[in-house]
Design a protein that fits this description.
This protein is of the alpha+beta class. The protein has five helices and ten strands, in the order ααβββαββαβββββα. A hairpin with a 2-residue loop joins β7 (about 145-150) and β8 (about 150-160). The longest helix has 22 residues, at about 1-25. About 20% of the residues are buried.
């Protein structure tokens, strides 16, 4: 009788143990990890959106209209009177101008502009004489010393040659760096040479 009770008790314990294992399943590690990640993401504060990157403005190309740039300097000129190298166009030598010295000219039936430069010259009166004689003119009137931009400029009216169809002229000279520059214009209006000079020097640079 005792043996029967013991066997029955043992069978009951086995059934209860099996039932307890089924009601308490083993935790799934992948689910626990997924839950932890979800909880972490939820806890992260929402940051402010980054502003779009700053795009600098597109640089505009320099305005080269009415501007001559070569031989280590730039100078303005009327758009309808482009300057070209007089030395290179000369039938006598066709030797181009250089940094150390040269001549530029622009002309049509209504106007003429001449620009010369020379290295290691400091006598601006000499430069006025040279540029005037190059076009058979003669200095007239009074010498005027003007401050145009950063340059002390010698300016003097010029009388064109008698056979010229242009009645008025003006010449100027100034220094920049190790070079001296001279400028001359013949036109049909008295005020034009002075105006063109100011416009030329407003855009003048010489790489100082």
């Amino acid at each position: 009788m005792r043996d029967q009770r013991f066997a029955l008790l043992l069978a009951t314990l086995l059934v209860l143990t099996a039932c307890s294992r089924k009601t308490t399943p083993t935790p799934d590690p992948s689910r626990e990890i997924a839950a932890a990640v979800a909880a972490t993401l939820t806890a992260i504060p929402t940051g402010t959106a980054c502003p779009p990157p700053f795009l600098p403005p597109t640089p505009t190309a320099p305005n080269l209209s009415g501007l001559f740039c070569e031989y280590g300097f730039c100078i303005g000129h009327p758009e309808h009177l482009p300057l070209f190298d007089l030395n290179a166009a000369s039938e006598e030598n066709r030797i181009p101008s250089t940094y150390a010295g040269g001549k530029l000219i622009a002309y049509n039936t209504d106007a003429l502009i001449l620009v010369i430069w020379q290295k290691d010259i400091t006598d601006l009166q000499y430069m006025l004489n040279i540029v005037t004689q190059a076009v058979n003119g003669s200095l007239s009137g009074n010498l005027d010393v003007r401050l145009i931009g950063p340059y002390n400029v010698f300016y003097q009216p010029v009388q064109p040659p008698p056979n010229s169809t242009l009645s008025y002229g003006g010449a100027a000279a100034w220094e920049c760096g190790e070079r001296a520059f001279a400028w001359l214009s013949y036109t049909g209006q008295a005020e034009t040479p002075s105006y063109w000079l100011e416009s030329a020097l407003a855009r003048f640079t010489c790489g100082e």
